Amino acid sequence: MKFKTLSAALFTTAAVSVSGVSMAYDEIVSVRQEPVQPIQPAKVSDPQLVKLGAMLFFDPRLSKSGFISCNSCHNLSRGGSDNLKTSIGDKWQEGPINSPTVLNSSLNVAQFWDGRAADLKEQAGGPIANPGEMAFTHELAVEMLQSVPGYTVEFRKAFGTDKINIDMVTDAIAAFEETLVTPHSKFDKWLAGDDDALTPTELRGWDLFKTSGCVACHNGAALGGNSFQKMGLVEPYHTTAAAEGRSAVTGKDADRFNFKVPTLRNVELTYPYFHDGGADTLVEAVDIMGRLQLGKKFTPDENAAIVAFLKTLTGEQPRIIVPILPPSSDATPRPTPFAD
């Protein structure tokens, strides 16, 4: 690749390869002074833990039905989301909120739209025990894993013991999710100095994104995820969704309808948009956000330019080899997808 304003020395090759996860990235060093930084490649310090986490992420036996896995709602072939307004839980229950992408989620200030989980480890345990999602319990999940000989081997390799507990489970899932980063987007290449990485329309979109005020909330490496903001700052946002936002965690009425600002990385892949999935397209989302958050009505040309810029944020997707899961033993409790 030819760069006009920097040398190849600004890209440091980093390779990672573990069972279930395969990565080979160049580290990007930013040279432009912008309110957004390039996504950096994952650095795996414990490949065995990541391997175990990948297995658990894809294993539907962590749900009561034996059908729902972490990947069901955070599908790694679909931008780390499920492209539904709200996710489908146990017994086809309708979820209360849109499923955010798991990609680059390690960059979030907190997890879930309302920030009720401090980190990925805390988040990983939530859906397993949520009756509207995977509908299991932590105790039953551990019992299931403990009954699978192949899993006891993997936990011994990762933790040095056969005795499994839920902390180990969430540690491993979080370790895997921390590898799900997406560097090398067109925008990252431009940030690193490649003047030819963006078209004039995409550059105009970036300029509009900055000068209109979008970057006040969508900044940092993830272009979001680092603050909570009110949905409907200039005009009220009308929705039938029951989610209250941050106030459900803090108990403060002032935090009502405050939600974690979503990352815009890979946003082309993670439709529909907003906490309620209320916008089906980027054109619609840009129009609504302009009016409700900024008090600005974008022209069709301005909207198209911003959308063109947003599409440059799609990065290199994690190259995942779907793990072969260890078989259940005769003692493994069987799933009960149709039981009350």
TrEMBL record:
* UniProt keyword annotations, A-Z: Heme, Iron, Metal-binding, Oxidoreductase, Periplasm, Peroxidase, Signal
> In this protein, which residues make up the domain named Cytochrome c?
48-156, 200-314
The UniProt entry, under PROSITE patterns, shows: CYTC
Signal peptide (UniProt feature, chain positions): 1-24
Q: Please state where this protein is localized.
A: Periplasm
One Pfam family in the UniProt entry: CCP_MauG
Name a GO molecular-function annotation. peroxidase activity
Looking up PANTHER family in the UniProt record yields: CYTOCHROME C PEROXIDASE-RELATED
**Name this protein carries in UniProt:** Cytochrome-c peroxidase
Species of the source = Orrella daihaiensis
Q: What is the lineage of its organism?
A: Bacteria, Pseudomonadati, Pseudomonadota, Betaproteobacteria, Burkholderiales
